Amino acid sequence: MKKAVFIFMLCCCVANMFAQEKVNFTKHFQQQNQGKYKIEFHDLKELIHIMIAITKTGKENDDMIQQQGQYYKDVLAYFKPYENEPIIKTFDSMVNASIYNYIFLTGNGISYNFKGNKLVKDIVFDFPATGVANVSITVNPITTYKKQIEAFAQKSHYKAFYLQQQKYFEQIKTDYDKKANLGKQWTWLEKKFKSKINSYIIWCSPLINGLNYTFELDDNHFKMAFMVLPPLDNYPKLSELENEIQNTRVMFTEIDHNYVNPPSNANEKTINELFKDRSIWVNEKINGTASYPNPIKVFNEYMTFGVFLLYCKDHYDEKTFMEATKGVISLMKDRGFPKMEAFTNLLFKAYADNRNKKIDDWYPQFLQMFSGNPVQ
């Protein structure tokens, strides 16, 4: 449960918060990516994950770093001689000071590419990760530490290690293509909502555990959903269908922020009024709820998981749908959102009454169902 709880703590507060991102979606880039999704590994981004993994903080945080599996063991063994390098200590102090620095480092890991032993600026992703929650930065940390990162990569012979892992990385990409149903999720969301996303990209690393995130990049009228996710899970005690739902939930509740947030923003005044009594909606004794400091963030967290259950209702049989609903209600309660059952009961009724309408259009009707605090 520890992993699942932390996964979903970050997804909402990160989603769509990179308002000043710097990207360059040229016509050529748009033509190459329109209507497509990709699962990618990136040489520098993976190095950043590795550098954080061998910090003292990284070794002590199994939510931040996936510490199970052969890959993690290989990383520790290969890079052990270099774990006391000054740049590793610098990164340690950064992620120890704020978990958001993990996002600023890994999120901007694609802003440079290795060319030989040097890092060269990427022509598309100039400075994609500039802010999260209420924290923003104006200088790309990869630029700040560029020379030190280059020196670490050369001294540790990182390129040789990265090349050795290519077969493993390809298998992870194949698993995503076969088991994640990203295309199906995308199609359903764009059928149900007014928002349109031109392209999706998943940046993956075997060292990602609970701290994954998503945001939307928008340039030249081209929108890309940018996700940083771990490999798919395969729980031996779960059936193939149960594994599919588990993996779909992780991805779906990242993706659907891009669709839920716009109608929520359009109805923000109403949401702020109806969800202003925080004591009803949030159990603040549970760690992580501070990442949802206002009514609209709380509502969006309920809604993104609720929409996932609507997706389940449309794609699975009744028994599977009910089991998924039970699991989400339990998970949300564990995370500090105690009214998920009451919320979903109202959501399911609104959905049944408006099956042929866009969800954006029946938001006002749905919100009015909360008048008079019916969930108390």
Structure description:
The protein is α/β, with parallel strands linked by helices and 376 residues long. The chain folds into 2 domains: 16-172, no CATH class; 233-376, no CATH class. It contains 20 helices and 10 strands. It has helices spanning 2-14, 27-33, 43-53, 56-60, 70-79, 86-97, 100-107, 141-144, 146-156, 158-164, 166-179, 182-192, 240-255, 257-266, 268-274, 278-281, 295-315, 318-335, 340-353, 359-368; strands at 22-23, 37-40, 112-115, 118-121, 125-127, 131-132, 135-136, 199-204, 213-219, 222-229. The strands form 4 sheets. It has a 4-stranded mixed sheet with strand order 2-8-10-9. Strand 6 and strand 7 (135-136) form a beta hairpin. Helix 19 crosses helix 20 (359-368). It is globular. The two termini are 27 Å apart.
